[in-house]
Amino acid sequence: MISITLDDGWSTQYTLARPALKSRAIPATYYLVTDAVAQGWGGYMTLAQVQTLKAEGNEIASHTRTHADLTALTPAQLTSELHDSRAWLEANVGAACGKDFASPYGAYNATVMTALKTEYASHRTINAGRNYRDTVVYELRANDVSSAVTVAQVKGWINQAIAEKSWLIILFHEFTSGTPTRETQYKTTNFTSILSYVKSTGIRTVTVEEGLALTDGLTEAPPSVGTVVYDDAMGSGFQDWSWATHDLDQAVTVHSGSTAVGFEPDYWEALMFHHTGLDLSLYQSVDLWVHGGTTGGQQVRLALYNGGTPLGSINLETALGHPIAAGTWQKVSIPLSTLGATSGTVDDFYVMDDSGSDQGTLYVDDFVLVPY
């Protein structure tokens, strides 16, 4: 199934996107910055327009009061951004509104997560990937459609969701009839082409609220299966902070499932997977599968950090006992005791170039922390 979500409440979502959605009977979820609507900020929808969207069967959800970075707020400010936004939607648009939430900029941490769970039934991130029946509802994955994303790319996401019977959430911001001048703008003609393709495939279209009703509604990841860093998508609680050239959704060289990470380990660049914080004492090892592509022999290092403090690292060739092979998958299992990282908190996982040179593409899949 697929959900079309629209962030912020820009007026072009009503004037340009709404007609294309309505004519195809596709419901959408609108995550609104409520002060923008309540105070009549320029370029945003009016309250009457929002009420029309609700009456037409769309979901109205929260995107905070002012679109603040929630991780930088005081406790009182955080409460206001979360609670007051939901309360305003309930009072002015409808009692059923404001159940679901998306954090501005995709920025959240453990404090934000604890606070939003008291106010909302779900949380949509901007971590790319698809969702499944057992997806944690406070870590919903979504693919952000910026001005550079092509119709062909989005069609590929839709085809993948159909093939694996997953739930694809895609998000848009502003729309334009002409040439986009900002990353957040998307051409209306491209949007219309995407919606027409959605209808042609027969994939089920749902609001986020409707999609949630069809999942298991898990609010925490099952503790017995370990903590997934990546397996077809970022694991629950993880964000992609990588600065290497990489693709979290490549589907050609895959160990298991439908996708794996492909990246260029060049000139000290790295995959960087960030978490709000995990207790190392609960885990015994880090396991991941690597594939050396067409070249093999890549010099790559796994490193664990707590903020800027290194906790331990090891070259994957050393961990394997031999060079990374070309053309095949190999499992790397690294005891945390080998890294000297058996206690404390870890929040950053690096898979980084260890050569300082240009190396061939490396693939990574099924990256997990193994519990005791």
Automatic annotation (TrEMBL):
Domain NodB homology stretches: 1-206
CDD domains from the UniProt entry: CE4_DAC_u1_6s
InterPro entries: Galactose-bd-like_sf, Glyco_hydro/deAcase_b/a-brl, NODB_dom, Polysacch_Deacetylase
Any single Pfam family the record assigns to this protein: Polysacc_deac_1
Record keywords: Signal
Location of this chain's protein in the cell: Secreted
Domain of life per record: Bacteria
Protein's UniProt keywords contain Glycosyltransferase: no
Coiled coil spans: none
Protein name listed in UniProt: NodB homology domain-containing protein
Species of provenance: Corallococcus caeni
Lineage: Bacteria, Pseudomonadati, Myxococcota, Myxococcia, Myxococcales
